Automatic annotation (TrEMBL):
Pfam families: Aminotran_1_2, GntR. This is PLP-dependent aminotransferase family protein. In the C-terminal section; belongs to the class-I pyridoxal-phosphate-dependent aminotransferase family. InterPro entries: Aminotransferase_I/II_large, HTH_trans_reg/aminotransferase, PyrdxlP-dep_Trfase, PyrdxlP-dep_Trfase_major, Tscrpt_reg_HTH_GntR, WH-like_DNA-bd_sf, WH_DNA-bd_sf. It comes from the Bacteria. It comes from Paenibacillus artemisiicola. GO terms for molecular function: transaminase activity.
Length: 460
């Protein structure tokens, strides 16, 4: 059929490099004229390419060639026949990103700050942006003033700087949840003090064990993701957050609360730990990478007064200041109301994906496979039946057309698990979630059968 010829033509051009990621495709009218067909035929071809994740649409702009993951580029003949369903890449859904809106904000920022572009900016961040951020944080139950808000070049910068700064309590050891995202593991590499882990599971944390660490461990700070944990998707309850804040006050421990996806929490009853902090020991850190554009590289930290000066000195040594134009664009995006509208759409998208993922888990994963039930649609973890290992399973699943992320690197050495991998459906089309999980279930069953056959042969 003619639409298949159009699909194959564009696929070939992408393969040979004639059309590269980010290139705009001809409009539907232009393509219809080029191929001598109806617009409906072109629409069908573009829809097929979009379903295969080879192109994406930008409303009121057109269709663009999508980025291809490394797994798709080098995964063999089967991966070239069809796209890998990628549960490993955890950026925001490209198809829902506000490209044109943010382009408008960037242009406005250039006009607004064109004189400032020729000088260095404020190391703490634009005062006008910090005012907008303080207003935005109120909706998240984080009540603070612009003077305590520090703009950072991505939340990972704030986390890294905080870990290595001396704190006013004079202590030197750190507690982190287990597992924890790979960026935190890398930031802790070579740290001079002791790093203690504490498991973060389906039922939350063992707060009595946390208290013992605070009481006896000379703990400088405790790092936790209070909502939509990476890699499990878990969230603390309000009761747990309140007790953690109280333990921090009682034992003079600072808490670094990473609320990087707090915007996606549509339940107004959920509060950040910061809301329960009466002693000024909760440091609130937030990112815009997971809900907007990762390339924006902007985040924030709400700091106690006694930490602000040393933090800003460390930040200035790292990058002088965060990029001025992206700061200005975010300011325009917040003050215009565009961000609030965008977040409403993102919540709906990820909520639907979370429901689909949980249903697919229940339907397709074999007995003995454990999994976490995400509510954000971003992160989830699967624990394989014994004696399977995550890396071997990931290699097998890639041959079946599914990419997952082994979580071994997300554990401290004393807590390491080799039978867990992380999934994210943030980039996965809703229609591909169940087929992808079905392939995962099939791959696990096949690996279990192979193990059974090997044991049978060995005994025979």
């Amino acid at each position: 059929m003619l639409y298949e010829a159009i699909v194959n033509r564009y696929l070939q051009e992408m393969k040979n490099g004639t059309r590269r990621p980010g290139d705009k495709l001809p409009s539907i009218r232009e393509a219809a004229e080029t191929f001598g067909c109806s617009r409906n035929t072109v629409i069908r071809a573009y829809e097929e390419l979009a379903n295969r994740h080879r192109i994406y649409s930008v409303p009121q702009s057109g269709y663009y060639v999508a980025h291809r993951t490394p797994a798709c580029e080098g995964a063999g003949d089967e991966a070239e026949e069809r796209d890998v369903i990628d549960f490993a890449w955890a950026g925001p859904d490209r198809r829902a990103m506000p490209f044109r809106d943010f382009q408008h904000c960037m242009n406005e920022a250039i006009e607004r700050y064109r004189e400032n572009m020729f000088t260095y900016s404020e190391e703490q961040g634009l005062a006008s942006l910090r005012l907008q951020l303080a207003r935005h944080l109120r909706d998240l139950q984080v009540f603070t003033v612009p003077e305590r808000v520090c703009v950072v070049t991505g939340s990972q910068q704030a986390l890294h700087l905080l870990l290595w700064l001396p704190f006013p309590n004079g202590k030197r050891n750190i507690v982190v949840e287990q597992p924890v995202h790979p960026g935190m593991i890398e930031s802790l590499r070579g740290y001079g003090g002791d790093v203690h882990g504490i498991p973060y599971g389906e039922g939350g944390m063992d707060l009595d064990r946390l208290e013992a660490l605070f009481r006896n461990g000379d703990v400088k700070c405790f790092y936790t993701v209070s909502r939509f944990h990476n890699p499990t998707g878990h969230s603390h309850t309000n009761q747990a957050r309140k007790r953690m804040a109280e333990l921090a006050r009682r034992y003079d421990v600072y808490i670094i609360e990473d609320d990087y996806m707090g915007d996606l929490d549509g339940d107004s009853r959920n509060d950040p730990m910061f809301a329960y902090d009466a002693s000024g020991r909760v440091i609130y850190v937030k990112s815009f990478s997971k809900v907007m554009l990762p390339g924006l590289r902007l985040g924030l930290a709400v700091l106690p007064d006694e930490l602000r000066a040393p933090f800003l000195r460390a930040k200035a040594a790292a990058d002088v200041h965060s990029p001025l134009l992206t700061q200005g664009a975010l300011e325009v995006y917040l003050e215009s109301g565009m961000f609030a509208a965008h977040i409403g759409r993102m919540r709906d998208i990820y909520r639907r994906k979370a429901v689909l993922l949980r249903e697919a888990y229940r339907k397709h994963l074999p007995p003995g496979t454990l999994y976490t039930g995400p509510s954000s649609g971003f992160y989830s973890a699967i624990k394989l039946p014994a004696p399977l290992r995550a890396q071997a399973a990931a290699d097998r699943l890639l041959r079946l057309g599914v990419r997952v992320d082994p979580a071994e690197r997300m554990y401290l050495p004393d807590f390491r698990q080799e039978d867990v991998f992380r999934l994210s459906v943030s980039q996965v089309d809703e229609t591909l979630i169940e087929p992808g999980v079905r392939r995962i279930g099939e791959g696990i069953r096949e690996l279990l059968r192979q193990r059974t056959e090997v044991r049978f042969v060995e005994r025979g």
